[in-house]
Automatic annotation (TrEMBL):
One of its GO terms (cellular component) is cytoplasm. Residues 16-308 form the NADP-dependent oxidoreductase domain. It comes from Psychromicrobium silvestre. The keyword Glycoprotein does not apply. GO terms for molecular function: oxidoreductase activity. This is Aryl-alcohol dehydrogenase-like predicted oxidoreductase. It comes from the Bacteria.
Amino acid sequence: METRQLGTIGPVVSALSLGCMGMSGMYGPSDRAESLATIHAAVDAGVTLLDTGDFYGSGHNEMLIGEALREIPREQVQISVKFGGLRDPSGGWSGTDNRPMAVKNFLAYTLQRLGTDHIDIYRPARLDPAVPIEETIGALGELVQAGYIRHIGLSEVGVDTIRRAAAVHPIADLQIEYSLISRGIEAAILPALRELGIGVTAYGVLSRGLLSGHWNAQRPTSGGDFRAFSPRFQGGNLEHNLALVETLRLIAEARGTTVAQLAIAWVAAQGGDIIPVIGARTRERLQESLASQLVSLTPEDLAAIEAAVPADAAAGSRYDESQMAILDSER
């Protein structure tokens, strides 16, 4: 497993991160035993960065990782946690709370669920419009000083917020969606991050399975599956997007690789400051994703991929209209 430094002040981490969200119901039912086996297999393969959120499964994901960590030396992994998302008992969403007192409360519960005394990278999941980012980062800085967190990260915020946050405390990375069909960060956000020495943990590299090469034309319908509400999986958008995947498949097969491996390798090739977050829920999908490290893309390969899937090729936005409206990164 290759390693990369997360920004200029962040930790050295594995070149691929394991995103654990899908192990807690966000994409439909998951298998606990297989989820635990997948985490262990990832760590055995050299993955050091595990990504979660305290609201994934309303704490379920953190408890799952905590269970896995009982058999993994704590110093062998780094844990990235998002906080601030509010849930209700029915599983619904109730907004964001990034007040300093809430930050400390969320962290207390996270440490307990994970069974650890510190979090390696702690980040607000979304910008709270009611709380200046300076106040949230200031509270996180106090937690760094107290030793409860090692580094501060951001998630889904735009250039102005990034600059304001970095003026308060050094920022290790921005976690944001980035893939062949979600390239919005390239115009302004990525250049600003590079200017400031902030790394990227790129989630959605397979666009929630759309770019996996394993998705068929069947639309997700379950209320427990985020994709049932994703515009890219609706109506004619799905057929259009799957046609892009088939174009990628031709390129992948000509190079002896899979669509998923090609898509992950493309993200990794966009810069040494980018860590793809792979959302594998099974050991089979994990092994396929890990093998993307063996894919070396030449300039000609990259040109062919981008000709097949131009930056604006996808049909449908990455979230529904209501969620897009609250994304600071989209402003």
